[in-house]
Design goal:
6-stranded antiparallel beta sheet, 4-stranded antiparallel beta sheet, Jelly Rolls, mainly beta
Length: about 170
Amino acid sequence: MSLRSTLWITALVVGSLTAASAQSTTPSHTFTQTFQFPPISLASTETVQINVLNAAADTHAAKASCSGNIMFANAGGSEIGTGTGFTALGSGKIATGTLPGASASSGGPSGSGPAVIAGSVSLTVDLSSFAPCTLVLSLQIMDANTGVTHAIVTTAVQTTSGPIPLFSPFGSH
């Protein structure tokens, strides 16, 4: 076999290996964190509102950005209405999701009385973007007619779903 043929075959093999390695799947750098507020009672004359603030500051590497969804669920765990999505929520920006009490089904023992609901915020975390995201959350119950606040809840339990990627400060190998 000539030198020219050997070089040509070697180039084909290296090119095939490079193309095959480029097609291999890379590990996901995305997962979801959920912040669950405690259940509350909501009268038909009230409105519940969840406020989401991105308190992260922009950095030299990336602008602060958060994306996710604000949702409400009934006592049976079914979602009420459609969630309120937020995308690219920048530093100091606020997203809000509301649910009028009249839209929630009653949750009393005889099917009457205040509805029992729970609010949550899901956050999509993408470690490959390096975008800072620090959420400050509040759930507010207010009079539907006057807007007077009846209660504020500032504590939510955080859970994580999906595979949690291992982070290497040295990049992937």
